[in-house]
Amino acid sequence: MVRHVLSLEDLGEAGSWLLVQQARGIPDARSHTDFMTERIAMLLFAQESLPERLCITAAVRQMGGSTIYQGTIGEWREELDQHQHQLMGVINYYVDCMYLYGFPARIWAKRDVEVQFPVINAGSPDGHPAHALADIACMLKYSKDDLKGVRVGWIGCTNGTLFSLIEGMQYFPYGLQVALPPSNDTAPVRDAAARYGVTVDIVETPEQAAGGANYVFAGCRSELDSQDEERWRITGALMDKAAPGAHVLLGSQPIRAIGVERELALSPRSLLLLQAENRLRVHKRLLHWVFLEN
């Protein structure tokens, strides 16, 4: 049976925990293996993202595989919409797995096409399982492997990482408090919490989201206007409202994340480099998971 990872639910609780622990157990995140030798991964990106492309390409290449990248140029999305069955058959002939970026994962999951190769969601508006697992691994490192009682604050607009963090609350015992800018509708967050049977505290201000949090995420700034950008920033003063020793994580790629004060971003409280390291680890373990039955 072909394995796909479009959401954390594809992994389940046991799979999510196992993958996080295995990823953390890789001695050197950049180690080279031959697991993907003679395997080809296709990167189908509906949006540009240099960090995602770098991470996935590095993971596949460091495991001995090859990649084919298709970005936003061309008419391939129209071709995919109109000729799904034919195109999937052709792609299946050439490649061994596919990474999708920028597609709504839930729409893709409902496509009436039997895909014969593993498909991994590398980031979508409604989910980003690899990022969520990598960030959970970061939190485990600084929480003595126990997330009970850990509070996570999200400040900024919604994106796939936030929705996967909400989904992850089914399996990992952290709490989540979310502050969305006035332009951002809270209904999708409430709907996601209801769908997964978890409780998300939706607050009104960045100060409330950071209050008592052990980890503060700089969320997306896609719907912020110029007047709001200064208000919706992660600063040292804001972090003073968080728990002692709280850390900052990026919930989006740097160019799309709300601002983080320079001194804070360069301080030990920022986990940006650890996030990058853990994402490489997680992508390697995802490849093992989709290709190995055990």
TrEMBL record:
Keywords: Transferase
Stretches assigned to the Aspartate/ornithine carbamoyltransferase Asp/Orn-binding domain: 148-289
Transferase listed as a keyword: yes
Pfam families: OTCace, OTCace_N
Swiss-Prot/TrEMBL GO biological process terms: citrulline biosynthetic process; L-arginine biosynthetic process via ornithine
Domain Aspartate/ornithine carbamoyltransferase carbamoyl-P binding: 3-139
GO molecular function: amino acid binding; ornithine carbamoyltransferase activity
This protein's record includes keyword Transferase: yes
Entry-linked InterPro entries: Asp/Orn_carbamoyltranf_P-bd, Asp/Orn_carbamoylTrfase, Asp/Orn_carbamoylTrfase_sf, Asp_carbamoyltransf_Asp/Orn-bd
Origin: domain of life: Bacteria
Family: Belongs to the aspartate/ornithine carbamoyltransferase superfamily.
Protein name, entry field: Ornithine carbamoyltransferase
Organism name: Candidatus Desulfovibrio intestinavium
Phylogenetic placement of the source organism: Bacteria, Pseudomonadati, Thermodesulfobacteriota, Desulfovibrionia, Desulfovibrionales
